[in-house]
Amino acid sequence: MKTPKTPQTDDLQPSKKRIFIGLLGLSFALIMLLILIGGWIATIGLNHLHPSLTLIAQVIAGLAFIFLTGIISALIFSILLEKDLPFTQRIRGLGIKLFLPLMEILGPRLGISKERVRNSFIEINNRLLISGNRHLIPPERLLMLLPHCLQRADCQRRITTSIDNCQQCGKCDIDALIKLAKAYKIRIAVATGGTLARKIVRDHKPKIIVAVACERDLTSGIHDTFPLPVYGILNQRPEGPCWNTRVDVSEVEKALQVFLKRV
Ligand code: SF4
Predict the structure, then answer these.
(1) Among residues of the chain, what percentage have pLDDT more than 70?
(2) 153 alpha carbon to ligand 1 midpoint, in Å?
(3) How remote is the CA of residue 181 from the centroid of ligand 1, in Å?
């Protein structure tokens, strides 16, 4: 199968890379500093107990330094080269669990809004997922997860209970996304928040999620569901956040084509 041009692969803006790599480097430096200070304090105390304990503490600090340096270097090379390197997916996990929360704290202090930090993280996460995507996913194991705000605010259909309740009137993008899900034979669901999203994921047991949401919800979704991969697509908010939002359906389709077997 000819691999289609991947969404966001050709437009990963250098500024997003710079933001991510810059904050990653800074978070790394901060962690190293904490290890250094902690190790130094521990050394003073341990020396009083037994001199060999000091050596053990120094060895542990040295190993932590080598381990984290290796991880960070691999992650940065993987982002710069846009190639899958060994352990890229595990490294993605470390980036999500350890560095992202730190980056969200550091970013605003350097004049980079949380939204921009999250935006760059989502794109890097997507890049790493695509580069590590060696096995195509059967359609029934791909879940398209949508936010409730895509539904027209004046629509009375209860699509969170079941998306089949949508009449497909065409007034919002839910209609086009249902058509897409049917065409590609994938699962599709709408969530009102994290709790329902987690229940949907538990019920469907997907191998991968293509999720549409805002920066905040995508970031927390990627974080909460790890190691389950989540490919994030940002919604558009022409009427403000959480209200009659839209999505570029062609971008969703391109993501499906990247991960699915030929259907
Ligand atoms: S397509 Fe129509 S029926 Fe379906 S959710 Fe949107 S507004 Fe409601």
Answers:
(1) 90
(2) 9
(3) 15
Q: Which CATH architecture has domain 139-259?
A: 3-Layer(aba) Sandwich (3.40)
Q: What are phi and psi of 167, to 5 degrees?
A: -85, -5
The CB of 176 under 6 Å from ligand 1? The reply is: no
Phi-psi region of 164 (alpha: psi -120 to 50; beta: other; left: phi over 0): alpha
| pLDDT of 2 above 50 | no
Rounded Cα–Cα distance for residues 153 and 263 (Å): 34
Place of tokens 């895509």: 150
Counting atoms of ligand 1 from 1, which one is nearest the CA of 157?
Answer: 8
CATH 3.40.50 segments of the chain: 139-259
Asked whether 37 and 29 are in contact (CB, 8 A), the reply is: no
Strand, helix or coil for residue 83: coil
Q: Are strands 208-213 and 230-234 parallel, antiparallel or unpaired?
A: parallel
Please identify, by atom number, the ligand 1 atom nearest to the C-alpha of residue 156: 8
Token code pair at residue 145: 């997860």
Task: Give the pLDDT score at 85.
Answer: 67
As a whole number of angstroms, the distance between CA 181 and CA 36 comes to 52
Instruction: Give the pTM.
Output: 0.83
CB 131 within 8 A of CB 82: yes
The closest of 113, 43, 92, 133 to 225, measured between CA atoms, is 92
